[in-house]
């Protein structure tokens, strides 16, 4: 069982925590991480793109010229895909891009993502972050003390004071433990967990 140091918001050591090997020491398989990230990104797509087929274009009901005798190729509508202003052949239509990934696979990928950050020494546990008021400057001071650059800060429950103080800082994202996902973990090079959030995650992912 691995042990990690716990810091306070000024980056002073205040204790240590045992990390569950079932969560932070699992074999990392890139193909599973790739599948889950692809699923997340696909689910975000709106899929509202659309083009008009010849049947959707307005007009084109009259035959441009008679079938025979003109010397030109036969034509039945000015909305043919061959004509300028005509419809589109096999163009995109609204669709749902999401696809299902089993719950067990998603949970496994979450463990793998946490393991990868821990093995790279990019995981930090912080006792708590307490701000006297909602102020971006106060959170910036904490981020600088902890040495955060492009970091994901994980709290146990949605904290409005922290959320509002951190939302305008480039590269910093604050997320609650129940909203944690593989894409955000892999996107951010530094992971900061509050102690109670780390305990909650370990209980849920064991």
Description:
With 206 residues, the chain is of the alpha/beta class. 34% of the residues lie in helices and 16% in strands. It has a six-stranded mixed sheet, sandwiched between helices. A hairpin with a 5-residue loop joins strand 1 and strand 2. Helix 4 packs across helix 5. The longest helix is centred in the middle third of the chain and has 17 residues.
Radius of gyration equals 27 Å
Q: What are the segments in which pLDDT stays under 50 over at least 5 consecutive residues?
A: none
Mean pLDDT figure: 94
* Number of strand segments: 6
* Main sheet strand line-up: 2-1-3-6-4-5
Number of helices: 7
Task: Itemize the secondary structure elements and their pairings.
Elements: E1 2-7, E2 13-19, H1 21-24, H2 30-44, H3 103-119, E3 123-126, H4 136-146, E4 151-155, H5 160-166, E5 172-176, H6 182-187, E6 190-194, H7 195-205
Parallel strand pairs: 1-3, 3-6, 4-5, 4-6
Antiparallel strand pairs: 1-2
Compact summary:
With 206 residues, the chain is an alpha/beta fold. Helices cover 34% and strands 16% of the residues.
